[in-house]
Amino acid sequence: MPKLVIDNRDIEVPAGTKVIEAAERLGILIPRFCYHPALGSVGACRVCAVKFLEGPVKGVQMSCMIDARDGMVVSTTDEEAVDFRRHVIEWLMLHHPHDCPVCDEGGHCLLQDMTVSGGHGLRRYPGKKRTHTDQDLGPLIQHEMNRCIQCYRCSRFYQEYCGYRDLGVMQSGNRVYFGRQEDGTLESPYAGNITDICPTGVFTDKPSRFKGRRWDYERTPSICLNCSLGCHTVVSARYREVIRQEARFSAAVNGDFICDRGRYGFFYASIAERPRQAAIDGKTVTREKALEVALERLESIVRQSGTAAVACAGSLRSSLDTLAAIDRLSRQNGWHDPCFWMDRCVATRVKTAASRLEADTAVSLRQVELADVILVVGADPINEAPMLTMAMRQAWRRGARVVVIDPRPVFLPIDFYHLPAAPEEMARGLGMLIKRVIEREEVEQLGREALSFYDSIPKMPLPVKDRLEAVVGIIKGSHRPVVVCGTEVVPDGVPALAADFSLLLKTKNRSPGLFYVFPGANAFGATLLPGGQADFEDILTAVENKTVRALVLVECDPLCTFADRPRMEKALASLDMLVVMDYLGTETMKRADIFLPTTTVYESGGLFVNQEGRLQSAPRAFKGGLSIKVAGDGRHPPRVYGSGMPGVEPVPARQQLAAMVAGQGPVEGDAAWREWLVDYLRLSDFLPPGDDFPEDGVRVLAAVATTERFGLDWAATLDDDRAGDERLRLVIVERTFGTEELSGYSPCLDTIVPSPVLFMHGEDAERLGRVDGEPVVLTTETGSVTVTLRVVDNMRAGMLILPRHLRLDWQLLGSGPIWIAADQIQKAEHT
Amino acid sequence: MLPEEIREELRRQIIAVEHPRELAVDVMFALQAHYGYLSDVALEEAASLLGMTPLEVEELATFYTFIYREPVGKYVIHLCDSLICWMDGYESLRDYMCRKLAVKLGGTTADGLFTLLPVCCIGYCDRSPAMLINRKVYGNLTAEKIDEILEELKNEA
């Protein structure tokens, strides 16, 4: 490890560290524009000049371009270097407008900082400044090209880091222009990051434009809830409103960036439509009154039909605190087993997957970047967990090969090998891969269970066999393979099979990794609860046969998220009482007999467990209350004097739930609650002593019982072979934008969201006489939807892929495996 | 619309190379030769032939001096705008040329014959000041010589 001296201080850094990074480790921030740790060095802006006094390099050099080496003596304060940097700043400022007062970057602008610290204060250039025409880049990003200092961060991030090709650099010399070929919304779902990395105000956050300066905001670290990855964010709140969300660096989860679904997915917290008042039968009452009446009615139902006549359900967007409070309430009061899952199969898969993550094979999102082979089974990264795509791309840029086994028309901004396999072919494919990649002799060293599992893999017919053959060699030659496995479209046995595969890959000195993708921010958290074995199917059945008479739904919208709306509507209408607690103005909430408003993660904080089993804490970002914008209807807030704050009726769901626990008093206070929670979920072994929650969270993986490994029942996994069936199998899936619940409340994403589509394979379209782009009516036994048909060739033939668009009544199509015959897809008469 | 034979020829060339991008400049030149300049339509055509996005083609098209994204005259004059020519009277020649053609730098004469553009060093420093007109180089320029050259071209046109 090279040892060097920077500004008279010694430092030892790993070989390959640039001098600019070595200095940063000493707390010396050398000026920089083009250099960014995630993008690497290009030496374009010349502002990181330092003087090398001794050692292998001499004189003024760019510190981002030179590796730290033994014997270097570096000065950042040398007169020559300081003078050099001052001149660089001066010429970078040559054309820069003096519009800081009206620039949204002002206050957190790197150019401002560098100009001040570089010592450039007086303008000497009397000539005309070059100016540019700005472009409309869509609803999320504001363009102001005159402020550009040509650092190239945006185009390098956009094209090299992300792999998107519609923003770049045009022209040359003084006319260099960063933008699109013509006006239009940026195509990349990671585009929002350029507002974070632009060192000046060329790209700024559009929805929060002119809302405040950085110092005006309450800035709090937070966790993104818009998918299961749990990326780190910074929340900026002002005037009782979440204004902006930015990426926060995490060495374990997301690195430097986040996706736009996460960045712009917070608006539900402050929109005017958010329900903040408790209500009984639609009439506004105080929270206390609503709770009192709820308890009274519940008591009478319990008296009449027993405690099991009440059921409580939550959802995967709730914090662990809320989920545990639901669990506790249901158990203490002797209610029906609580439910956190909309879909029984997904629940089974997630529970299996969570139980199969082992400390030495579970990899973090960042570790995916280090893989040399990535095998994706039944996951669609860009739609289900957008930042996973970025991690995969970084691995691919380092030379990794990527194989995707999934029926959907998967798009990734990388070269990858796509095997569009039907769900039932996934297990076969994995079985065949295991047999072909790993020799029997190698398995012997892994124990008797592994060997008998290996021997039990049946010989199976597989339509995509030839194409799978090409993958065998790729995986055989790997050193750090990562198996990525989804839980939405795979058969129930596949998550366990993926785990078994990752274990078997340990042969030949490989260090395999396992990475699951779950539905919902807290899916893993829900598996940690002692109760909650039920799913909505169970609850519905109990409602239908009248054993459950009252439902308490906590931050849960089954009318939107359950796959059979007609059945759900009927069941809800037949209840004696429906209590809804939520911070969203959902369809379900509108049917509630009693509504109790709850707080969002921004107002109450909470614990969340991401798909890797990483327990993370999101602190409270602000006190809550009705935003001043809404309170004043866009004008000055009402001049009513009082000590109270409007819109503070919502309380954390766990508090509301604690008040409903019969007998035992509620757990009061945040500290006592946290202590109770840690104890209830047996998390104390995982948490380090002290009050500070670790920055990158802690992994809460239970030890995996040896009996769980290699226990797959092949016969049960393979029994749904439908070869020869002419009908098309309908699969309902997620998309980056337009299907996720929370981001569905963000007005700025409205125009980004593509219109609802149904994907069909070209062969099927030809056979059925359907053409791309035509509106079709899809009918099942329970209902029908009208949707635009997209004919593609990169999906599994014999299937239909329908994104569960929030603007589409996909819930009318019913639940369970749906098979569509030719006469069930008809051209729509008119759209 | 691009004639099918040109399109076919370009396709043939593109298939023959490992990375279609390699031929980006050749394709742009071929389309420019056909259309007279690289129009927006031509840019889209180049992009679709090369499997690139319009932006990626635009990045290259606007970087290179000899790709014209706007209509140009029959003769494109690239007047050398570099160090050695500056020493040998570039500025007065430029002003002379602008007056004579009644255009600004970058402009095209009303009759559509001449477009005047500055260019960074054409490597003719030993005979500076110099210029290129439709790929033909002229050195040791004087006002008289320019008059002669332009007159000749006008007669040819």
Question: Any descriptors?
Answer:
heterodimer, A: 831 residues, alpha/beta, 7-stranded mixed sheet, 6-stranded mixed sheet, globular, B: 157 residues, alpha+beta, 4-stranded mixed sheet, 7 helices, 4 strands, 48% helix
Concise overview:
The complex is a heterodimer of chains A (831) and B (157). By secondary structure, chain A is of the alpha/beta class.
Portion of residues in helices of chain B?
Answer: 40-55%
Q: Percent of residues of chain A in beta strands?
A: 15-25%
Strand content of chain B: 5-15%
N-to-C order of helices and strands of chain B? HHHHEHHEEEH
From the N-terminal CA to the C-terminal CA of chain A, the straight-line distance is 67 Å
For the biggest sheet of chain B, the summary is:
4 strands, mixed
Helix/strand/pairing class of chain A, anyone? alpha/beta
Apparent shape of chain B:
elongated
Low-confidence stretches of chain B: none
Q: Tell me the distance between the termini of chain B.
A: 26 Å
pLDDT averaged over residues of chain A: 93
Strand order of the largest sheet of chain B: 2-1-3-4
In angstroms, what is the radius of gyration of chain B? 18 Å
If helices are DSSP runs of H or I spanning 4 or more residues, what is the number of helices of chain B?
Answer: 7
Q: Which descriptor suits the 3D outline of chain A?
A: globular
How helix-rich are the residues of chain A, as a percent range? 25-40%
Q: Which two chains share the most extensive interface?
A: A-B, 12 and 10 residues
- What structural class do helix, strand and pairing data of chain B support? alpha+beta
Q: Unreliable segments of chain A (pLDDT under 50, ≥5 consecutive)?
A: none
